[in-house]
Amino acid sequence: MDKPFKIAILGAGRWGNHLIRNFWEHPQTEVVAVVDPNPSRLEVMKNQYSLPDGVELTQDWQGILARPEVELVAIATPASTHYDIIKYALTQNCHVLAEKPLTLDASECLELCHLAETQHRQLVVDHTYLFHPVVQRGQEVLSSGAVGELRYGYATRTHLGPVRQDVNALWDLAIHDLAIFNHWLGETPIEVEATADTWLQPGLPDVVWVKLIYPSGFKATLHLCWLNPDKQRRLAVVGSQGTLIFDELSSDPLILQQGQFEAQDGNFTPVGMKREVISTPAGEPLKAVCDRFLQCVEQNQPCPQSSGWVGADLVRTLQQIQLKIKN
């Protein structure tokens, strides 16, 4: 590459801040604009990263994307705005990195995927956990057969906030664990069940319980809540010979807990009990996302891990879960 890609970043909130940091520090990109409806956020970003006057700080996202020199756009705006912004960016021949979920409607996602193909632009979704070193190492462990025949899984994602106003706890939290299970299993759910409760904002459930059923017979349950001070970020896959545990808040985030039963005279005796800490390489997942996005742009090839098509499939499942909650 002869010169850095010129990128605009839309959204300067909590996640947009991380995107600005990564692309500002990246040798392959030149941040030419930061867009946010809140002028005070723009001022904070300008001071935090000592952005020069050449970086435009504005509320006008359409004006920025219409600039011919803008080649890439990273989008960290509310999910309800994604469709309009991404569609416009693609028609302006920009490659797009979008925060999850891609949109709130699977048909819109598919439309954007087809548009990206027509425009010969790359559409990548920031499903950050799919680039997490622990998730990547966990897939290797499962593929090795260390836990035996896969049986079921469970995940808990709870904390006291942050509370979103644009989407409910399902749309905010479920996509992470859904993406991990899909990635590890290499399949997508064929059936879902769900229930939810609401306390804070009418129409936006605070806690959701989900059951995912996969073609292989594997079943997973999700517990999602932003109204629970017992903070957990824990996911497990149970097999015939052990359980693989990803506990993001633990000092040992990836554990293989082995063990099975030995049957004799109608009794079941635990055997082979062993706890193994799985070593994982260091690395910031979001940096890996940004690196992969730029690689996809350079090669003009879609991202198999987290393309728009992957994002569309996840949104389709979320819509099915949402329908179960409404019913």
From TrEMBL:
It comes from the Bacteria. Gene3D superfamilies: Dihydrodipicolinate Reductase, domain 2, NAD(P)-binding Rossmann-like Domain. This is Gfo/Idh/MocA family oxidoreductase. Residues 136-244 form the GFO/IDH/MocA-like oxidoreductase domain. InterPro entries: Gfo/Idh/MocA-like_OxRdtase_N, Gfo/Idh/MocA_Oxidoreductases, GFO_IDH_MocA-like_dom, NAD(P)-bd_dom_sf. The lineage of its organism: Bacteria, Bacillati, Cyanobacteriota, Cyanophyceae, Desertifilales. Transmembrane segments: none annotated. Residues 5-127 form the Gfo/Idh/MocA-like oxidoreductase N-terminal domain. Pfam families: GFO_IDH_MocA, GFO_IDH_MocA_C3.
